[in-house]
């Protein structure tokens, strides 16, 4: 009999461990634990309460055999009732019959007035500190059975404590990530990242995570997506922020000069080298070196770059002295480096060295909800620079801007708005001030891709335009489009649109 009970107990503990190790919500997991506990032990009810230390209140986190209404009533102060006594003292309590126990409050109202049940309550402890309690009801039982229940609940409470600790650690990490993200967002205003799209938020979260580290970062994405801004953000959020941030455009330097630019040279190293000169690595010592368009480097230069990344040392061109540097490298490319590795155009070992923490910058066509904020941002920026205030985009011009696929991404949009700001004489940005390629009488000329993709862009454009004109009023926008508010809400979720964003926009 004893062996059978031990096997049953082991099965219970194994099942509980599996439940708590799952990735589901902790409250759901704890409810499942209580359900399994009841099935294995025959207990009538089970409750897990946790202590809110800030308010000194104990509340039900999960329960089995109890209605939601009853659970909401299960709140206790420290020392109040059986549960409060256990949490306050850190010692378990066994009540053979709750009907004759004056401390038993039955605050939840889940037990009948004449229901003779036994009650076992044990503390949940984490690192020697009581964080809650695990309790269970069973039909009136002998003292030996209750002692066995107390022992089993104590073991289960320790497993629950570990799960709660894991959740707290997860929440702490999420909060730290949010804090870092907020810091970065603050650092990047007003002249850097603009927008609230999920794609941009995901990128900023990644930058917040990697910035405080010393990891090499590889920024991937089309031209004009903001890779240099991302590199700036990484440097600003790192411990190296007070040291140099040096930029090198590898595509802009001739093959014969790139090595000298990166590593420097000594006097007489080549014709015209009248004296020694520091390279970009030395200039960035202690700080960050941003290597833009790194895919343009020759294989011979890649070899030397790999050595610096691995050994943190190099020699100037024409020199013999080995120099040490402490530089964090952030690289960027618009090319497919993996394909270049397969084609023999980029060293595999260098690619692995650079690809420690890749970040993909989304193109503007995948961030359509950010087009409006970017337009507003550039209107303000260049309006201030040129001395023109109160600039507005006409609905016709805005429709063209929304329909445009922006192959040049944010840089193209910025150039278009700057040109229009220069040309306007009355503060209005009309279609005539946009580039000739965008001045089609019908936005159909800008549609591309498959039919479903084109229709989706038109749908998104119409919904965005309606929200802008109605200043974020979903009801009015839905009415204007001839659809229900429910359908409007579904479409907004589909396109990741937030009505609050449109409240700021000008007509």
Describe the structure.
Residues 193-422 form the Sigma-54 factor interaction domain. Keywords: ATP-binding, DNA-binding, Nucleotide-binding, Transcription, Transcription regulation. InterPro entries: AAA+_ATPase, AAA_lid_NorR, GAF, GAF-like_dom_sf, Homeodomain-like_sf, HTH_Fis, P-loop_NTPase, Sigma_54_int. This is Sigma 54-interacting transcriptional regulator. The chain is of the alpha/beta class and 507 residues long. The protein folds into three domains: 2-170, Beta-Lactamase (2-Layer Sandwich); 198-362, P-loop containing nucleotide triphosphate hydrolases (Rossmann fold, 3-Layer(aba) Sandwich), CATH 3.40.50.300; 366-504, Helicase, Ruva Protein, domain 3 (Orthogonal Bundle), CATH 1.10.8. The chain contains 18 helices and 15 strands. The chain has helices spanning 2-21, 26-41, 68-73, 81-89, 143-187, 198-210, 227-236, 255-263, 280-283, 299-311, 337-342, 348-354, 371-386, 395-403, 409-423, 451-469, 474-481, 485-494; strands at 45-52, 57-64, 75-77, 93-95, 117-126, 129-139, 217-220, 245-249, 288-292, 313-315, 322-324, 328-333, 357-360, 392-393, 428-429. Strand 5 and strand 6 (129-139) form a beta hairpin. Helix 1 packs antiparallel against helix 2 (26-41), helix 14 runs antiparallel to helix 16 (451-469) and helix 16 crosses helix 17 (474-481). The protein is flat, with a radius of gyration of 32 Å. The relative contact order is 0.07. The model is unreliable at 441-446 (pLDDT under 50).
């Amino acid at each position: 009999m004893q062996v059978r009970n031990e096997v049953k107990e082991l099965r219970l503990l194994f099942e509980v461990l599996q439940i708590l190790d799952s990735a589901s919500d902790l409250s759901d997991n704890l409810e499942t634990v209580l359900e399994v506990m009841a099935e294995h032990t025959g207990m009538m009810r089970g409750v897990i309460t946790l202590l809110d230390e800030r308010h000194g209140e104990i509340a039900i986190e999960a329960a089995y055999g109890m209605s939601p209404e009853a659970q909401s009533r299960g709140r206790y102060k420290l020392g109040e009732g059986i549960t409060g006594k256990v949490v306050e003292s850190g010692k378990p309590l066994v009540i053979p019959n709750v009907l004759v126990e004056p401390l038993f409050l039955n605050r939840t109202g889940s037990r009948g007035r004449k229901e003779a049940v036994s009650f076992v309550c044990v503390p949940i402890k984490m690192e020697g500190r009581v964080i809650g309690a695990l309790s269970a009801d069973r039909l009136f039982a002998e003292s030996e059975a209750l002692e066995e229940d107390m022992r089993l609940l104590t073991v289960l409470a320790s497993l629950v404590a570990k799960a709660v600790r894991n959740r707290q650690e997860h929440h702490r990490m999420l909060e730290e990530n949010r804090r870092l993200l907020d810091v970065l967002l603050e650092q990047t205003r007003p002249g850097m990242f603009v927008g609230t799209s999920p794609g941009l938020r995901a990128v900023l979260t990644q930058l917040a995570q990697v910035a405080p580290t010393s990891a090499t970062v590889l920024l991937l994405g089309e031209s004009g997506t903001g890779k240099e801004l991302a590199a700036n953000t990484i440097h600003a959020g790192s411990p190296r922020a007070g040291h140099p941030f040096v930029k090198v455009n590898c595509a802009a330097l001739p093959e014969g000069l790139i090595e000298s630019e990166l590593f420097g040279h000594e006097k007489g190293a080549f014709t015209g080298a009248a004296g020694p000169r520091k390279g970009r690595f030395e200039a960035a010592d202690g700080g960050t070196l941003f290597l833009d368009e790194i895919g343009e480097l020759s294989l011979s230069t890649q070899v030397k770059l790999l050595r610096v990344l691995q050994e943190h040392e190099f020699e100037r061109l024409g020199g013999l002295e080995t120099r040490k540097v402490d530089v964090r490298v952030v690289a960027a490319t618009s090319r497919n480096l993996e394909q270049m590795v397969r084609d023999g155009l980029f060293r595999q070992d260098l690619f692995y060295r650079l690809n420690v923490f890749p970040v993909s910058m989304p193109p503007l066509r995948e961030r359509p909800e950010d087009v409006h904020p970017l337009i507003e941002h550039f209107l303000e920026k260049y309006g201030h620079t040129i001395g023109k205030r109160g600039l507005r985009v006409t609905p016709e011009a805005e429709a063209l801007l929304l329909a445009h696929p922006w192959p040049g991404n944010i840089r193209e949009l910025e150039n278009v708005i700057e040109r229009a700001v220069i040309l306007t004489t009355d503060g209005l940005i009309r279609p005539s001030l946009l580039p000739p390629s965008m001045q089609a009488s019908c936005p159909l000329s800008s549609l591309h891709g498959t039919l479903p993709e084109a229709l989706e862009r038109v749908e998104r454009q119409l919904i965005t335009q309606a929200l802008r004109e109605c200043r974020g009023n979903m009801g009015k926008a839905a009415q204007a489009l001839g659809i229900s508010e429910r359908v409007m809400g579904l479409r907004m979720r589909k396109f990741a649109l937030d009505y609050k964003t449109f409240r700021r926009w000008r007509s």
